[in-house]
Amino acid sequence: MNEEGFDPREFELVDRQSEGGVWPTLMHTPTAFSFTIIETQDARFRVTFMPGETTWRESYGNGSWDQVIATRLPMWLRYVRREIEAPDLWGELRREAELVAGDLNAADNTPFSPDEQAQVRRHLDEVKQLIRANQALTATQLDAIDSRIDYLAEATERLGRIDWREAFVGSMLGLVVQSVVPPQPIREVMFFVLRAVGHMFGFHLPAIGK
Length: 210
What we know:
alpha+beta, 2 domains, 5-stranded antiparallel β-sheet, 5 strands, 18% strand, elongated
């Protein structure tokens, strides 16, 4: 723990129910980040921890203590340090969602015009390329984002603009809540799309930090 500059008093060893048993879990009490040790058959071990390297929750291992715990615990501590020192991405996502879903009376739930549908679809296609260029994501994570974006592109033809706005926010935040994609790329998707199409809902989003 000292390697990452942590005070040992920041951590607590507790028992946590997971995967059909109760297992020892190291908790980082200020953040509730956790590292759970699961003992499998033949005295082998597996760990489940959050945050992970590329997703919010990850699992690893089916080996000896030295192979699994001794190698993954230092890595988990680095991930915890990364999250502590990162910008408040969740705070920004929540702020963005509140701006988008705030005043539902700012626009009525009229359908998108054909020109607006084309604009939204174009910006959704652009954000796919942006994520591929700027984020190191797995094929599974990219497929998950693409699936949501393709759904939202199709939905412009049948949802009113307020319904679409709520579907967009829910779809994007759902990928983070379900630990499919980490917050940073979803933040980029939301900021890019909502700044591009916000005028269709009667608002213009401020620049980050303002």
